Amino acid sequence: MSRLSVRALLIIPPAAIVAGLLVTPVLYLLRLSFFKSVPGRMDLIPGVTLFNFDKLLFDSFYLGVLFNTLWLSCLITALTLVLGYFLAYFLWRVSRRWKMILTLLVVAPMMIGIVVRAYGWMIILGDTGVVNGFLKWIGLIDQPLHMMFSDGAIVVGLTHVQLPFMVLSILAALDRVDHAMAEAAETLGADRLRTVWHVILPLSFPGVVAGCTLVFTLNMTAFATPVLLGGNGTHVMTVLIFQQFSQIFNWPFGAAAAVVLLGLTFLVLFVFLRLVMRRAAAWMEARPEENAA
Amino acid sequence: MSRTFLAVVGLLYVFMLAPLVVVVVVSFNAGTVTDFPPSGLSFRWYAYALSLDLYVNAIITSIWLGLAAAALSMPLGLMASIGIARGRFPGRDALQAFFLAPLATPGIVVGIALLVSYAAVGLRDAPLRLLLAHVLITFPFSVRTILASLSRLDPSLEEAAATLGASPAKLFWRVTFPLIQPGIAAGAIFSFVMSFDNIPVSIFLTDVHTNTIPIAIMSYLEYNLDPSIAAVSSMLIVGSLALALLLERIFGLRRVMGM
């Protein structure tokens, strides 16, 4: 047997793992989403029904959960983009000596478990927490503000989780931009803001698109942060899925909810990328005239 | 850079680091409730946390699970990467995407898909359920770091060894393996960290006797807010940061993240 085919054989064990533990289970999950679900019955009744999808897409409660998930994901993506661009631009400008340690300070929290970071936010945002303690101390409030277990707490916690992903995506694009570009624009009389808006932002646009795509997907499917910071009454899809599987035991309905969540995520990304590509193309075409004006 | 800009950046760093700092500060709290600032300095919550079976058992589970997952996913990642990088057959890009699919699939989907599938085949042993799942979700990290190492490898080194008559096995163990060692080590360490921190897959596969540490903290948080969680969390923060620094040294943290 030739050496090359021996090497090709190497892929069989890992391929078997992915096929057996990911592809087959996900296909089974898809199949399960068409099963009939009978509340209160643990055993699964095979069949083909659209009942679960009908309930998810036409019942106002579940539709509300779906829209809330989408709204929160978009909001957090936008927030992360603005804050992340600041940080990435800063890391791009900062001197080489400081860049490594300052980048590490942004990236290192990614290595710390979600539950630990969520607990940190509970200490900060809780009724007897840091923020309330401070506001009481300066005499601004008498009664604590209830910030925990709300959509607001989820927004804060998820922004914290996703920010490093956005920064790294944008920074990867910025690192390919020649610093001389910025200097040239400034030599030609553009101020800092105009330089960033007209030169740096377009050049780092692929990083912005990549970051938004990644962070939006991570937001739609985030589970631990919404559960911990939003509480069990949180109206997001992942928490709904978790409840169906772990508390209500309506597996087919939970499976259908997962299918709908993934479908909506892909649909939004598809539309977003189409719009972005069209916009980027128009942008590039408009450029010469804009410069001439 | 203007002062306003630097002020915004400073606030963003505070935002990034604040939740970690408060956890460490609270862990040294002498009081009984999680109040901030702490009422006095004490190690009592560390002692208390380490006396609770809930935490100790979960930490032991997480450590063996992480080590076993890393140990099993490393050779799998090595096989997959060598196959992709050195094999000559069509569709290698698609194959790479296939091997990275466990990373691209949302954790909660992997979790529920495995939950229903394990139930369908009657696999009830929680340690085995967790181990298989963690091998699946960690081996793509090895694929990523080892592929990154292989792509930087000068092909002339391997060609020279082959020309000089090294057998394929000798060529691999004496030339390729030593050169991609940082990628292998980084993949294994990152696999351990990702297994250790995992929630969305583990939460569906644990049982009363087998709990991982993030899941144990989550269930403890439902009924208690005492600083013992801060003590455990602080230990996890120190451990994670140590591994982060190690990864930065041997491979570069941004490369490990694939960004």
Distance N to C terminus of chain A? 68 Å
CATH topology of chain A: MetI-like fold
What radius of gyration of chain B results from the CA coordinates? Answer: 22 Å
Structural shape of chain B: globular
Order of helices and strands of chain A: HHHHHHHHHHHHHH
Q: Beta-strand level of the residues of chain B, as a percent range?
A: under 5%
Proportion of beta-strand residues of chain A: under 5%
Individual helix count of chain A = 14
Question: What would a concise description of this structure say?
Answer:
By secondary structure, chain A is an all-alpha fold. Chain A has helices spanning 3-9, 12-32, 51-58, 60-93, 96-107, 114-125, 130-137, 151-174, 179-187, 192-203, 205-220, 224-230, 237-246, 251-292. Chain B has two domains: 22-51 and 230-249, no CATH class; 52-223, MetI-like (MetI-like fold, Orthogonal Bundle), CATH 1.10.3720.
Which features characterize this protein?
heterodimer, A: 293 residues, MetI-like fold, 14 helices, B: 259 residues, mainly alpha, 2 domains, 11 helices
Could you walk me through the main structural features you see in this protein, from its secondary elements to its overall organization?
The complex is a heterodimer of chains A (293) and B (259). Chain A has 14 helices and no strands. By secondary structure, chain A is mostly helical. Chain A has one domain: MetI-like (MetI-like fold, Orthogonal Bundle), CATH 1.10.3720. In chain A, helix 4 (60-93) packs across helix 8. Chain A is globular, with a radius of gyration of 24 Å. Chain B has two domains: 22-51 and 230-249, no CATH class; 52-223, MetI-like fold, CATH 1.10.3720. Chain B is built from eleven helices and no strands. The longest helix of chain B is centred in the N-terminal third of the chain and has 34 residues, at 53-86. The relative contact order of chain B is 0.15. The interface between A and B is large, with 78 and 86 residues.
